[in-house]
């Protein structure tokens, strides 16, 4: 008689845990995107609405057969976030049609003051990624409230805006979006600026792009229209369906992958700047390295005079807003 087959030894591979604070449109979509992309082996949702978070968890669990191996948890108790490697903060006031991101600051900062201390108790070593708007002000406030070093807590910044920019450029030029390399810098909001001078398409500097048959060149007027559409994108979506969730969910999960995969990926996240081209003590987006340590340093991307002036204006606007909220 054959001896029973022994169970295989438990894997020594460390697992990864992503905690998402807020089970609304953005938080639940980010959980879905992270699961579909296999970003983490455990995804935990935290929300004060117990019925809502339990329903979201159940719905996600019913699709686990069709995803990379993972588990999903959820609760209204902060303990569900214990031991998280990455905590993504999406909780905040919902942006209404016609409302600017800065208008949301006061109530969202109040949530940060309430929720963040408990998160630090259960996940002190996690990397914290702030996604809720206005992300630059909220990130600055969260750094002050938490006392965490800037590499451990930063905002999603203009990762989504840069994706919008690349999509519009690719559409105009008739190329795959993956061949467009361009960044939005500054505020995730109305004062953000495209970094045209360092952008490229398939290795060709964007400002030298001559177009191809059936597609026009990127003239100054075309670039201006594209930049305007990037800024207005969120307002257009909110007016049409009430919230942005799909693209921001994917952008957030991409940041999580860069952290957990120790990718050293260059992403335009919102970080505390200290003497970056003379800009100090403000959170805004510039290209930065993202890896297992979090935000591991800024990239000194070349700036034209106009881009430098735009970045300074964006920093001034954000500083004034932060001072208005007592920071």
TrEMBL record:
Query: Known activity regulation?
Result: Allosterically activated by fructose 1,6-bisphosphate (FBP).
Q: How is this protein named in the record?
A: L-lactate dehydrogenase
Gene that specifies this protein: ldh
Give the catalysed reaction(s), semicolon-separated. Answer: (S)-lactate + NAD(+) = pyruvate + NADH + H(+)
Q: Which residues bind NAD(+)?
A: 22-27, 47, 52, 92-93, 114, 131-133, 156
**Annotated GO MF terms:** L-lactate dehydrogenase (NAD+) activity
Q: Which residues form the active site?
A: 188
Q: Looking at its record, which EC class is this enzyme?
A: oxidoreductase
> Which stretches make up the Lactate/malate dehydrogenase N-terminal domain?
16-155
Which species is this UniProt entry from?
A: Sediminihabitans luteus
The chain residues annotated with the modification Phosphotyrosine are 235
Residues at which beta-D-fructose 1,6-bisphosphate binds: 166, 181
Record's subcellular location = Cytoplasm
**Pathway assigned in UniProt:** Fermentation; pyruvate fermentation to lactate; (S)-lactate from pyruvate: step 1/1
